[in-house]
Predict the structure.
Amino acid sequence: LRDFHGNGDFKIGQNIDIQFPDDQFQAIRNTNLIRHYVQCDSRLSRLFLYLRMLFDALEIRNSKYGLLSSYHILLLTIHFLQSEQALFPWPVLPVLCKTHSNLVGAHIPIDDVVSTLDSAQGPVGAFLFVKDYRGSGTVDKRRLFFAIWTHFVVGFRHAHTF
């Protein structure tokens, strides 16, 4: 492993991916952010699973070969659900860094982030905003899935058929 840069392939057919955390513990903070988004709206988890299966069927998910990872798909799903252009009359998810910076962000001490992640129920009162933010909640899963399909998958195929 003289020229080791993070990925190691062994002669026995196994491989390993080693990552060293930065001094800001960004991976832990990202986990905290994703957990908050998943707790905001149950549709996020379901849409993510649908999209992951779809991207598998399209053979465009495999980060080992430079394709999309599950984390990329999750971020695309969150971004889409925050987009005002894609969903009417309002987005499904807020931008938590703007609306609830007291729950997510680099300024929160890492010990507080870890405590939040260790708790079984999540932060108390974190999602009192969800009902007001989503309005009547009339955007059902089928409409969200169709909107994501047309926005990302059809758009992706159209952009790459030159």
In short: The chain has one domain: 7-159. The longest strand covers residues 7-9. The beta strands are 7-9, 15-17.
